[in-house]
Amino acid sequence: MSKFVIAPPPPVGLPVQGEDALFPVRRVYCIGRNYAAHAIEMGHDPDREPPFFFQKNPDNLDPSGEFPYPVQSGDVHHEVEMAVALKSGGRDIQVGHALDHVYGYALALDMTRRDLQGQAKKAGRPWEIGKAFEHSAPIGPLHPASMVGHPDKGRITLHVNGELRQDGDLAQMIWKVPEMIAYLSQYFELAAGDIILSGTPAGVGPVQRGDELTLTLAPLGEMRVRVV
């Protein structure tokens, strides 16, 4: 007999490169303005201030290869990122031990209803209306760290219809992956299944229905997403 008064939603699982089993998702944390050039293009000082995070919902992650253009917005922007998947967690994790908790990495997008985010910023309100909508985080297959190591440098790019829009390097991240994990664990109890989107380089811009987005990051290969 079910313990729930209604049927619970299905769990969110992400594909893993070379595996039939899925990676279960618990929470999704996203760091803001983690590349200096992107901070500048968004009108902020890139000095190393304490990091800040917002959240998306687990079911915002979408590995389908399609991004449905969302309602209530006429200005949706692409943001290419590297996703970090945790296999364990805890509180007050030390920087030197942070990577021990990483299962693997993936290419991902933090799609943003920029017009709605801008309205929220002006009003001093949370960003969820611009960030945490359906299908707002297209994501590729996870690559286990046991296979690809822990990428801390390497070119990360995004092309739209063959035109280069974003071109950065993981080495340009203001807060590195171990530091993000350690900082988050001071405020949240991290756990297996948590995903961290690690920030985007400069060059964010709008997408339109019919656009083809191509993301690259060695050693994670290539990911393609079509705006529908």
Automatic annotation (TrEMBL):
Q: Which Pfam families match?
A: FAA_hydrolase
| Keyword Hydrolase among UniProt keywords | yes
Give the keywords, sorted: Hydrolase, Metal-binding, Pyruvate
Residue stretches in coiled coil: none
Report the domain of life of the source organism.
Bacteria
Q: Which GO terms describe its molecular function?
A: acetylpyruvate hydrolase activity; metal ion binding
Q: Where is the Fumarylacetoacetase-like C-terminal domain?
A: 28-228
Q: Which InterPro entries match?
A: Fumarylacetoacetase-like_C, Fumarylacetoacetase_C_sf
From the Swiss-Prot or TrEMBL record, give the protein name. Answer: Fumarylpyruvate hydrolase
